[in-house]
Write a structure and sequence with these properties.
This protein has one domain: Sandwich (Hypothetical Protein Aq_1857, Chain: A), CATH 2.60.300.12. 13% of the residues lie in helices and 41% in strands. The protein contains two helices and nine strands. The strands form three sheets. It has a four-stranded mixed β-sheet. A three-stranded mixed β-sheet has the order 1-6-7. A two-stranded antiparallel ribbon has the order 8-9.
Length: 123
């Protein structure tokens, strides 16, 4: 006689959102979408670059591609290249204005380090 014991299933842990967009980044994207990039979407990917190995790659595209995931956060929609998803899970996109520069920044919990100039990162 054989008996099997059912192991209780663990409750599934909710995954963090693929990406979130801060208020400042959403405001800047709305301005870009309304002006020169009207009708386009921002696609975010990761490419091999720099001394740490990876860099964020941003480009405006006319339509969603088959390898893109659509992310809507803070009322703004962006696309994320599916190949970059594992590197970007839980990332917050922000927009910073400093004395000598302005641009999108990323707070990525998967980053293990950045190069000295801040252009590239590694996971």
């Amino acid at each position: 006689m054989s008996t099997t014991t059912a192991t209780p299933s663990r409750p599934k842990r909710e995954l963090p959102p693929l990406m979130t967009i801060s208020d400042a980044a959403a405001e800047r994207l709305r301005a870009l979408y309304a002006r020169g990039e009207e009708g386009k979407l921002l696609r975010i990917g990761v490419k091999t670059k720099g001394c740490s190995g990876l860099a964020y790659d941003l480009s405006f595209v006319d339509e969603q591609g088959p390898a893109d995931e659509r992310v809507t956060s803070n009322g703004v929609t962006i696309l994320v290249d599916r190949k970059a998803s594992l590197y970007l899970i839980g990332t917050m996109m922000d927009y910073e204005v400093k004395a000598m520069s302005a641009g999108f920044t990323f707070v990525n919990p998967n980053e293990k380090g950045r190069c000295g100039c801040g252009e590239s990162f590694h996971v």
